[in-house]
Amino acid sequence: MKTWSDIAEIQPLASRIITNSIHKDRISHAYLLQGERGTGKTTIATLLSKTLFCTNRFNVEPCQECSACKRIDSGNHPDMHWIEPDEQSIKKEQIEHLQKEFIYSGLETDQKVYVVKGADTLTMNASNRILKFLEEPSKKTTAILMTENSSSIIPTIRSRCQTIDLKPLNPQAFQQQLINQGISRGTAVLLSTLTNNLDEAISWNGDEWFAQARKLMIQLVEIFSTHTNDAFLFIHQQWIPHFKERPQQEQGLDLLMLAFKDILYYHIGKEEDMIVFFKEDEKINNLVMFFSQEKLLEILNNLLDAKRKLKQNVHPTLVMEQLTIQIQR
């Protein structure tokens, strides 16, 4: 997606709000883009930045070819600043560095833009510091905050931004996009449950790590139902060495959640197209016989709790050990 017309196809309301502001030369000093992962937050932030800096803009559309547009694409524009979480949060020191950058006027124009990815991870000290920008906005400064969880952003920040809600993408439409890229329907269904980002989904489809992650997930579910006493050993010898990084650990829990949802869906007779991993065979019948509906609901709650603990920076080995014990009960 490179134009506001492209954005309008998946986020028509967001596109209309921003382009109307551009037409009227009434760009807000601060935007809060809130929506699920893959709904276009980064694309919108990048496109808006290009619109503000482009030297050959046609109406609302940036040219994509001038020096400003290309440097924004490469992340090298001197007057556009990206702030991302350092490990699990955005820290006070990162905002202090931004403040120092803003002491000086723009190197090429008076315009400055800063984009905060994962704004919900701002520490309290960082939140209080960034309020200065929002309370005393420079005429030529635009802030773009992005989040999947706006309720975690302090109200004083939310109240000073123009909030733009991005709607979830249609999963069927996204699946068809993946199928059009040569991905099998079954894999397209799986990928659409994990991400709304086309490039990311295509990358995962050809990734050996992801393929192995799927195999390990299926093996672990089967071990829980057939050789439950081996689960702890499997976790330490196979699971933890494979899921090393925090995003991988979260993805592993997402895969387990989808698998246990599959078993629950078979229990309650959901439609075949809702099943991600287990199609009608002896394997799924055995899993349905082993896990009751009550136990499956308990496991799904355990998985949600495990994801919360990872977000809270609990050690991933401890999280998986506790989850294994809970499922074994």
Question: Tally the helices: what do you get?
Answer: 16
Let me know the average pLDDT: 88
Q: Indicate the overall shape.
A: elongated
Give the strand line-up of the largest sheet. 2-3-4-1-5
Give the radius of gyration. Answer: 23 Å
The CATH architecture term of the largest domain is 3-Layer(aba) Sandwich
Secondary-structure-derived class: alpha/beta
The fold-level CATH name of the largest domain is: Rossmann fold
- In which range does the helix fraction lie? 55-70%
Number of domains: 2
Terminal CA distance: 48 Å
User: Strand content of the residues, in percent?
Assistant: 5-15%
Low-confidence stretches: none
CATH class bucket of the largest domain: Alpha Beta
Task: Explain the overall architecture.
With 329 residues, the chain is an alpha/beta fold. It has two domains: 4-165, P-loop containing nucleotide triphosphate hydrolases (Rossmann fold, 3-Layer(aba) Sandwich); 207-328, Zinc Finger, Delta Prime, domain 3 (Up-down Bundle), CATH 1.20.272. 58% of the residues lie in helices and 8% in strands. The chain has helices spanning 4-10, 12-23, 41-53, 67-74, 92-103, 124-135, 155-158, 171-180, 185-194, 198-205, 208-226, 231-242, 246-268, 282-290, 293-311, 316-328; strands spanning 30-34, 80-83, 112-116, 141-147, 162-165. Helix 8 (171-180) packs across helix 9 (185-194), helix 11 packs across helix 13 and helix 13 (246-268) packs antiparallel against helix 15 (293-311). The protein is elongated.
